[in-house]
Amino acid sequence: MSGFSVFLIFFLHVLHYSVIRTKIPIENPPFIFNSSDENEMRMFLDNEIPKDDTLKHPYSQDVTLENFPNPFIHPSLCNRSGLKYSYICDPNKILSRNIADKVEEILSYQRRNSSHYCMDKGEVPYVLGVALIKKLPYGISADMFGNQILDYWKLGNKNCNDGILLLFVKDDATFELKWKKGAQSIINFRTATSMNKSFNQNIRRYSLEHSILRAVKLTSQYLTGEIIPPTQTTQMVVALTIAIVVGLGYLACILIVFADAQK
Q: Within 10 Å of residue 255's Cβ, how many Cβ atoms?
């Protein structure tokens, strides 16, 4: 066997092994908390002693599109008393104070660790808000309610049209994810469908508060890039395939020249 043949076989073997070992991010991997997160949540959910303010009556008015509170203006009406503003609104007190604080921490982490380009401002974080409601107003769908709240709160960076809202309806045990056009590079119909499947699985498996906490965490992971959206995963696979094909083309040219030189 000639030296050229040995070299070619060796190269193809190395290339095959490299492709197999290439680590491509898993598209929509199972949502798993690490052990420390699980322990923290058990502490919050199992050992929590409600404070006095969590024992007060929930928001007494019938919630409508017109009177649903804005946590950036009236955080106390959103069960976030003591804060100047909040990214959560829970007028019916679905969450305990400790769990609401935990959600706030996740949202803060997401804003510090997510980034995208806005034409007017350059690199800015995604802005995610969470709205919880016991029961939807009569004749109003979760889709309509979510869109209205997203507009009413003016979520997002100014002039970037990039706000994102996670709505939870307690009586229906459903989540609704809404987003503006400027966030479509990370959240789109395909991504939202995949996320909703995870939300629904968590509702069936875990307690109400735990499910909400997981839904917020999962959404945050998409926005920070800890989970790769389906469209980005596909793009990475295509880019890798093109790179391999181009590399093989260059190699073929080099080997042909090398073979001619040996004649």
A: 14
